[in-house]
Amino acid sequence: MIAGKIGANGVKATPTAAPGFRTGDERLIKLTESAGRKVSTLLGKQGRPQGVLRVAVVGGGCSGLQYKMDLQDQPQNRDILVESAGVRVVVDPKSALYVTGSELDYVDALTEGGFKVKNPNAATSCSCGESFSA
Predict the structure, then answer these.
(1) Residue 6 lies in a domain
(2) CA distance linking residue 53 with residue 115, whole number of Å
(3) Range of the domain at 48
(4) Angstrom distance (rounded) from CA 57 to CA 63
(5) How many domains does the chain have?
(6) Max intra-chain CA distance, the chain
(7) Residue 45 above 60 pLDDT?
(8) Taking the model in full, what pTM does it have?
(9) Mean pLDDT throughout 116-123?
(10) Fewer CB within 10 Å: N-end or C-end of the chain?
(11) H helices within 54-129, ranges in order?
């Protein structure tokens, strides 16, 4: 990929010098307005209004892979940074292979509420909705 161009996976190549992370777009991961509001609220409560939401895929769960989300102060080296719904989201390169094209939503409900990932790469998912296989 040529520096400065955005590839099909929504990641823009940047020079390897600082800042140490790359910029992507919503083709990598997109937040709904509801998810953006919830993440902004959580970042504010933690005193990190300029923080980021880290979305990662790790081994585990009934189907083999599961999502891990965490609030952090800033992107780390090699991360891909996406701005969506007013929130900065970071994904590591390995997780990007699994989440490309995903949408993160937040449902405020007593039962089955919380963050929900709609992932077009998931071949199967478990009945609890917490894990998937690709």
Answers:
(1) no
(2) 12
(3) 11-133
(4) 12
(5) 1
(6) 48
(7) yes
(8) 0.80
(9) 89
(10) N
(11) 93-99
Q: What is the CATH number of the domain that holds 17?
A: 2.60.300.12
Q: Which value, to the nearest 10 degrees, does the dihedral of the CA atoms of residues 96, 98, 99, 101 take?
A: 100
Specify the residue for token string 């390169």.
93
Evaluate the CA torsion angle 18, 6, 89, 97 in order and state its sign: negative
Tokens representing 17 are 């010098």
* 5 assigned to some structural domain: no
Domain assignment present for 1: no
| Cα–Cα distance measured from residue 34 to residue 85, given in angstroms and rounded to the nearest whole number | 9
**Cis peptide preceding 19, ω within 30 of 0:** yes
Pick the residue with more confidence: 25 or 131?
Answer: 25
Tokens found for residue 25:
């777009």
**DSSP 3-state of 61:** coil
Tens of pLDDT, residue by residue over 47-57, are 999 999 999 99
Tokens 């909705």 sit at which residue? 129
Residue 94 backbone zone (phi > 0: left; psi -120 to 50: alpha; other: beta) = alpha
Tell me, yes or no, whether 126 lies in a domain. yes
Mean pLDDT of the chain: 86
Whole-number pLDDT of residue 16: 46
According to the model, what pLDDT value does residue 88 have?
Answer: 98
Between CA 105 and CA 111 the distance in angstroms is: 15
